[in-house]
From TrEMBL:
<dbReference type="InterPro" id="IPR022709">
    <property type="entry name" value="SCAI"/>
</dbReference>
<dbReference type="Pfam" id="PF12070">
    <property type="entry name" value="SCAI"/>
</dbReference>
<dbReference type="GO" id="GO:0003714">
    <property type="term" value="F:transcription corepressor activity"/>
</dbReference>
<feature type="compositionally biased region" description="Polar residues">
    <location>
        <begin position="362"/>
        <end position="379"/>
    </location>
</feature>
<dbReference type="GO" id="GO:0006351">
    <property type="term" value="P:DNA-templated transcription"/>
</dbReference>
<protein>
    <recommendedName>
        <fullName>RGS domain-containing protein</fullName>
    </recommendedName>
</protein>
<feature type="region of interest" description="Disordered">
    <location>
        <begin position="345"/>
        <end position="382"/>
    </location>
</feature>
Length: 598
């Protein structure tokens, strides 16, 4: 029997070493590109599944031979890492759910907690597990799970500080601060009744317009398959390498399950009504559970490459790779959120609007906005540049003092317009991108500056970008801009407000589909639900900001699109203004707007 136990133990250790070697090969593979190491991923998955199955079948012998519970947790954690890595490369929801299943099982079975080891290495493994589980739970909107794990992470950091005084845990204290800051900024946590950022067939597919969208046929219809999301601001809200703005855009470009496929809360597992204690030796994780947690009727999500603080050359390399691999008749969305002009750190004023009187005397210095010293503002608004200011405007991707190597110029994007491009620029230098040549691309450009009734809301380091917020959560952005306290509101009031928006968006979709003047650039992407929703929300954002600021200030505070959308949906169009007015009156904030006879 002893010899048999030795054989089992040696076989298990050999499988662990083999799986770890394969894991090391794929861990640092880039998360973009369609064929990046897929062969290796299949091999490492196979190795870990074989290891997992072996430890399940020989659990008793392995425990007798000295197998620790944290070692089982580490194997499950590696499998969770692999699944999450596949999610970042493919954006397939099933991989994200698989990662969640494994991480949740580790938590429930207390693989790390139950051992009570005074081993610093094991404690670091547990800290990393909590951080990875938090990221997966955030993206899946498991708010209750996030709160539970944050509490455990805080307690573990405090325990490590007390028991390992010679070790500095400052970085882990910062991790705790990051997630708490993220939770305070993310409305998913502050507003329980908030609708999902993801595309929901229940809320975002409007019955009155669906027949027009279904019958809409442009001369050329493009499929939305790939996206690049990049946010780069100093001291912006983030967790790990996921910034708040990138997080909102990521969710905005994915499908929401119907809600009946998985629970929102972290529930105790029960059998026959009795809570199951997983602190024993059982290592069973039901890998078939994922079939009950995903919606097979939904189309695939577009692939998304999320770049955290990339260099300019890295961003361009990623864009080149994805454009090169883009299938025919497809469009790529590129979302770039960054400041411009680092040489002008003297802060820019942010408009504070408290009512019908438009006064610019009350202004707040934003910690993150950068002064716009355009040599000729009119030329930028008209989309023209002089030779002297050709290189004056850019996005700044770098640390202080990096110089021109950190500047992303509008001209850097020109080569990629050879492929169909849907470009969203959220920056105080966004309008510089109007002036560039190249093939015709769809452009959504943010205002130079945000506008709020309460100027303290303008700090991007606390709340994220206003323009991005409008594109991803229009009602919440509207309430934030007008100072309407969402968290204290009656749910019925919010539901009625959402219904007002849904009715308006449905009307605007019909107008877009029926418009004879709709440019082909917009027409060829209108059939895609994600891009259509962004276009409609842009129309809403533009109309709201146009009515919230005075006409002489509109060049600074109103977003722009190129090519122009039909005049029938301009900010002054009756069908648009009446909807904004109805929403403002419903929330009792109409005194902050000025409408033209609506």
């Amino acid at each position: 029997m002893a010899e048999e136990g030795d054989v089992v133990s040696k076989t298990f250790r050999a499988l662990v070493e083999r799986a770890d070697r394969k894991f090391a090969r794929v861990r640092d593979f880039p998360s973009y590109g369609r064929a990046q190491g897929q062969h290796y991923f299949q091999k490492v998955f196979k190795a870990y599944m074989r290891l997992w199955k072996y430890q399940q079948e020989h659990r008793t012998e392995l425990v007798k031979a000295g197998l620790n519970r944290w070692e089982i947790g580490e194997i499950a954690g590696r499998i969770g890492q692999l699944y999450f890595g596949q999610y970042t490369r493919t954006s397939e929801a099933r991989f994200l759910v698989e990662a969640y299943v494994f991480y949740e099982a580790i938590l429930k079975r207390r693989y790390f907690e139950g051992c009570k080891v005074k081993d610093l290495g094991v404690r670091f493994k547990e800290l990393r597990f909590y951080a990875r589980f938090l990221l997966v739970s955030l993206i899946l909107n498991r708010t209750q799970t996030v709160k539970v794990v944050v509490a455990k992470l805080k307690a573990l950091v405090d325990d490590c500080n007390a028991n390992f005084r010679e070790t500095n845990f400052k970085e882990w204290k910062l991790v705790v601060q990051e997630i708490v800051r993220f939770m305070n900024a993310d409305t998913t946590f502050t507003i329980a009744s908030a609708r999902p950022f993801r595309y929901s067939a229940i809320f975002d597919c409007h019955p009155n317009s669906v027949q027009y969208v279904a019958r809409f046929h442009a001369k050329k219809v493009l499929k939305f398959r790939d996206a690049i999301l990049m946010s780069y601001h100093r001291n912006e809200v983030k967790f790990a390498e996921l910034t708040l703005d990138a997080y909102r855009m990521l969710q905005c470009l994915e499908w929401e399950s119907s809600g009946s496929f998985y629970p929102k809360h972290l529930a105790e597992t029960k059998e026959n009504g009795v809570v199951v204690d997983y602190s024993g030796t059982s290592g069973l994780i039901d890998m078939k559970l994922v079939a009950d947690m995903t919606d097979p009727t939904l189309p695939p999500n577009p692939r998304k490459a999320i770049l955290y603080r990339p260099s300019v050359t890295h961003l361009i390399a990623v864009m080149a790779t994805i454009c090169e691999e883009l299938p025919p008749e497809s469009v790529i969305l590129v979302y770039l959120s960054a400041s411009g002009k680092p040489s002008h750190i003297n802060a820019s004023p942010v408009e504070s609007s408290g009512g019908p009187k438009r006064s610019t005397k009350n202004k707040l210095t934003s910690h993150n906005s950068l002064e716009q010293n355009f040599s000729s503002p009119e030329s930028h608004i008209n989309g023209k540049k002089g030779s002297s200011d050709y290189y004056d405007d850019y996005l700044w991707l770098g640390s202080k003092g990096n110089g021109g190597s950190s500047n992303l110029y509008p001209g850097d994007i020109i080569p990629f317009t050879r492929r169909p491009l849907f470009l969203v620029i959220d920056s105080d230098s966004s309008h510089a991108f109007k002036a560039e040549r190249g093939e015709k691309a769809a452009l959504l450009l943010s205002p130079f500056r945000p506008m709020f009734k309460d100027p303290f809301s303008a700090d991007i380091t606390q709340n994220g970008s206003q323009f991005t917020f409008f594109l991803t959560a229009p009602l919440q952005a509207f309430c934030q801009m007008t100072g309407f306290a969402l968290s204290d509101s009656d749910i019925e009031v919010l539901n009625n407000a959402e219904n007002i928006l849904s009715t308006a968006f449905s009307k605007w979709e019909v107008i877009l589909c029926k418009s004879p003047s709709l440019d082909l650039v917009w027409a060829q992407v209108l059939s895609d639900p994600f891009l259509r929703r962004l276009i409609i929300r842009f129309i809403f954002c533009r109309a709201v900001l146009s009515a919230f600021c005075s006409s002489e200030e509109s060049e600074q505070y109103v977003p722009v699109c190129l090519p122009q959308l039909p005049n029938s949906l301009s900010p002054k169009a009756e069908v648009v203004q009446s909807s904004v007015s109805q929403l403002a009156n419903h929330l009792n904030v109409a005194d902050g707007f000025h409408f033209d006879n609506t």
